[in-house]
Amino acid sequence: DVKVTQSSRYLVKRTGEKVFLECVQDMDHENMFWYRQDPGLGLRLIYFSYDVKMKEKGDIPEGYSVSREKKERFSLILESASTNQTSMYLCASSFGGHPGFGNQPQHFGDGTRLSIL
Amino acid sequence: KQEVTQIPAALSVPEGENLVLNCSFTDSAIYNLQWFRQDPGKGLTSLLLIQSSQREQTSGRLNASLDKSSGRSTLYIAASQPGDSATYLCAATNQGGKLIFGQGTELSVKP
Distance between CA A107 and CA B111 in Å, rounded? Predict the structure, then answer.
């Protein structure tokens, strides 16, 4: 079975802090994704990556950056955390190069509930 | 721009009942349609994926159908159980390879 592991289930940080959310997958998947989930807004794509050192902006990249130095690890970075970034963050991965051609199911981690005070 | 809608937002049924969850999408140019389950405070579990060339997929008591021409997908759950209680999300993969999610249907199965 695919295992997508997010480093923290719950995280509390202060405004202005630099925050790192880590995600690791164990199935040698090319594609990795970061979403946030908010009541009434559903899941929204922040960034994705279809190869090491490659990244593409999703629908709401503002205030975030990402890093993919190794195939199995995809990090989401909040450069200067703000209260409107309080949310549930979900990482996912899938097989097959570019997402548009891979056409494989995305597998999700358990999520990190981040609170910015 | 692709929009995915799920109706109803919430559904409560007695145990043992068969039920159907609905998902509609505005742009038929999709690669696939995926159904997920989400338990409270948890991540998403992939249930079924229907490729654009397929009409349906089955896994145990679950059956998902896809009608691209009408922009609809349904998830059929047979003989529902209290353990099926969760939020069910559908998502369409658009031509750019992104998943577009519906808001979900919160299902409660009463013993």
Answer: 30
Q: What's the residue count for chain B?
A: 111
The pLDDT tens digits for B21-73 are: 999 999 988 889 999 999 998 899 999 999 989 999 999 999 999 999 999 99
Are the C-beta atoms of A50 and A101 separated by less than 8 Å?
A: no
C-beta separation of A103 from B51 below 8 A: yes
pLDDT at A117 over 90: yes
- Chain A environment of B46 (Cβ under 8 Å): 105-108
Lowest mean pLDDT among A94-103, A107-116, B12-21: A94-103
CB–CB of A55/A34 below 8 Å? Answer: no
Q: What is the mean pLDDT of residues A41-48?
A: 92
**What residues of B are in contact with residue A45 (Cβ under 8 Å)?**
98-99
> Which residues of chain B are within 8 Å of residue A4 when distances are taken between CB atoms?
43
- Yes or no: say if A15 and A110 are a contact pair by the CB < 8 Å rule: no
**In which band, very low, low, confident or very high, does the pLDDT at A101 lie, cut at 50, 70 and 90?**
low
- A43 and B31 within 8 Å at the Cβ level: the answer is no
How many CB atoms are closer than 10 A to CB B74? 17
- Which residues have CB under 8 Å from A13's CB, separation 6+? A19, A78, A81, A114, A115, A116, A117
Q: Do the chains contact at A108 and B36, CB–CB below 8 Å?
A: yes
